[in-house]
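Researcher: We're reviewing a set of sequences before deciding which ones to prioritize for further study. For each one, I'd like a predicted 3D structure that I can look through quickly. This is Flagellar hook-associated protein 2. If possible, include the structure in token form so it fits the rest of the review sheet.
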Amino acid sequence: MTIGIDGMASGLDTGAIIDGLVAIQRNQQVLLKQKSSVASSIVTALQALNSRVASLATAGEKVAAPASWAVTKASSSSDAVTVSAAPNAKPGVVELRVDRLASGQVSLVDPAALTGPFTITVGGTDHEVAPSSPHIDDVVAAINDARGTTGVSATKLRTGTDGDGNAVYGLQLTGATGSGGAFSLTAGGQDVAATTLAQAGDAEVTLWPSAGGSHRLTSTTNTFDGLLDGVDLTVSTVSADPVRVTVATDPAAQVALADELVGNVSIVLSEIASRTRTTTSTDAAGNTVVSGGVFSGDSAIRFLTSDIQSAVTRPVDGRSPSSVGISLDRYGAISLDKAAFTKALTEDPEGATAMIQAIAGRVAEVAERASSSAEGTITRKITSQESVVKDLGSQVAKWDQRLDARRAQLVAQFSAMEVRLSQLQSTQSWLTNQIAGLTASSQQ
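Model: Here's the predicted structure for Flagellar hook-associated protein 2, in token form for your review sheet.
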């Protein structure tokens, strides 16, 4: 390590001089760091844009798929029937009358008849139940523990008061809904007497009663799965009047699809515009400084913007997208007039959906070409800029080494100068003393 002798002989602030000389050379490194910062910001901006363009490609593929437009909405003419429709439910209509709701068997049993092991028989299958004690609470617990296999649950039901004023309880058993849930009990090989409070039965509906239909459907629950393609019905009230269930194309969902596409396009174009826009500021000297965005002057980004706008607004089979409510304003923003698109769907549903599907396909193609992880134009720009950042980082690191070496060299040079100057000063002092001595001798 070189030891500096800071101004010992010269009286100069050699440390400050060295710092100044090194700072002059460091300006080159500062410029490199600024370039690296700019390149890094470009990488960040491109990555954010690439993510949004990739989302646009996904949205375009979704909207272009015919299956996405097969959206339906189910409705019922009465609260007695509720409808649950899958996204791919097919349009259709059915009329039905609710004749009966599903019910489970409810029986009241004397707990004294179940003081030991007993059998619950459901659908011809025997299930052995062994309470831990004859106490009614333990009998209830044992029955409920077996509920997963028997479908029968138990609870205490207060049935009166004994002579001492104590509550008397019966054992109420409830089976699963549907005729198949009916049950019986035996203990010690004998049938257990039970009072049936409710019979087990299936839900039943009659299809097209107003047309004289006699076809009846039953269900062990109050839900009829797949009565229409992709549609489940749940009945809640017996209804003498026919109930009409309708499954039809859902225009609101189709409008939402078109709006999803236009919304994703707008996000991408807004992202590009915000990072291209110039800004005006004032520097420390009061001068006006105009700065361009990170995408300003980038031809690839400019072409991407043009391609997206063209994909959305270019005619389809000679028809302008404005006919279904899609427009481009003077600022380059894309918008969808939902009322106009709804009207187009009403007047020509096939033509309107075909128009949006074609536009979505073109948008997906442009977006995929730009954001593809293998050969996307934005992906390649990101890779190129990352190489620039890496190279600039390497140059900055080399400048650190170069500046350290330069500082060491300057410290050595100034230290040598101070040592030499100190030696000269010592020689001067000796000569001065010698001359003074000679002068004194000659004057004697």
